[in-house]
Amino acid sequence: MTKVDLKDLTLPELTEFVVSLGLKPFRAGQIFAWLYRPGIRTFGQMTDIAKEVRQQLAGVATISHLEVAKEERSADGTVKFGLRLDDNEIIESVLIPEEERHTLCVSSQVGCAMGCGFCLTGTMGFKRNLRPSEIVGQVNAASDWLANQGKPPRLNNLVFMGMGEPLLNFDHLITALKILMEQRGHDFSGRRITISTCGIVPKIKALGEAVPVNLAISLHAADDAIRDQLMPINKTYPLDQLLAACREFPLPPRRRIMMEYILIKDLNDSPEQARKLIKRLHGLRCKINLLPYNENEVFPYQRPPEERMEVFQRILRDAGITTLIRTSRGSDISAACGQLAVQGLDDEDMEGT
Ligand code: SF4
User: Fold this and answer.
1) DSSP run (H or E) holding 196
2) Does any ligand 1 atom lie closer than 6 A to the CB of residue 199?
3) Count of C-beta atoms within a 10 Å radius of residue 249
4) What is the pLDDT of residue 347?
5) Among 92, 134, 165, 260, which one carries the catalytic annotation?
6) I want to staple 323 with a disulfide (CB 3.0 to 4.6 A). Which of 40, 109, 249, 288 is the partner?
7) Per-domain residue ranges for the chain?
């Protein structure tokens, strides 16, 4: 019999499961709270649960755990984790410390099928979707790591901007978000979670209806010709459709959609493109993050000069759009935007697997 991984279950699903074992429903809340505390790996550690119940659970269920196979620290404090899955695939998540706050950049798939023309993850191709437990497990791994460093094991923000397209792993993503937002567990509010999509139009509204999280769009262009070149998904869901879906996203009051725009020299960084962007975004509650391109050996693109980026920003700001130029964190360890690609896990790292 295949054992059930309890970290794949929302609290209502866990309640159903424990009741099916003949246990009282309140046990589910107790177990759930244990699962998401730092360092919990076994039923034996759940000390307020009767020994017979723990033994019964161990016979039918497991508690998965993602092992840190590789850890790299950037000069700016960013930490990139290579996390080993049950089938020995490796995914990456990135912990970004900002003063007293910690943001974790989370992966949703092993590899990615979207093939965006600036992203190293896309060059890996798609391997598989992550299970809910593998999405939530990244948060557990990061909070365990913080606890081991003697820091409070609390993450402030989660951004789904790691490997993969989250909306193509929709059901597992929603389950994972429900687990992460459960008060007895990590207790994230939807305000502190951002899902970033390259533009899977049919799932955008559905996401907002399922969970009250923030939405980020990898926009990167103001016209279809340039976006087609950068992002193959644009041929299926062009900009008009994408921005119409954004307008239908059930945005909670006082929140805005985040538009991510990687600035690439001589491609999408002209004042004309900035003006096109203003027209496209008219009436949409949004803010724009401008991200200078992280140059690499795989793609031919370059980062624009500072002055050009500032001009682009000023045009948008003058039109009343909140616009920030964000400097990427962790680019020296390939942890910045578009750089996650499971590099550097050599044979030695894989020994014993
Ligand atoms: S940018 Fe996102 S959607 Fe595009 S290839 Fe990279 S991981 Fe996939």
Assistant:
1) strand 193-197
2) no
3) 18
4) 32
5) 92
6) 288
7) 4-62, 67-350
Q: For the chain, how many residues are written?
A: 353
Considering Cα of 314, then 319, then 320, then 325, what sign does the dihedral take?
Answer: negative
Q: What is the pLDDT of residue 346?
A: 36
Residue type, 39: G
Is residue 151's pLDDT more than 70?
yes
What pLDDT score does 17 carry? 98
**Residue in the block written with tokens 């899977």:** 200
For residues 239 and 280, the answer to whether their CB atoms sit within 8 Å is yes
Q: Residue 97: pLDDT above 90?
A: no
Q: Quick check: is 337 catalytic?
A: yes
CA atoms within 13 A on the CB side of 298: 18
The Cα 76–Cα 331 span in angstroms is: 9
Angle at 160 between CA 154 and CA 166, to 5 degrees: 140
**CA 117 – ligand 1 centroid, Å:** 9
The pLDDT value given to residue 340: 65
Q: Which CATH architecture has domain 67-350?
A: Alpha-Beta Barrel (3.20)
CA nearest neighbour of 218 among 227, 226, 205:
227
Is 52 among the residues known to form the active site?
Answer: no
Dig out the tokens for 20 from the structure: 């099916």
Q: Given this structure, which CATH class describes domain 4-62?
A: mainly alpha
Residue 116 Cβ inside 6 Å of ligand 1? The answer reads yes
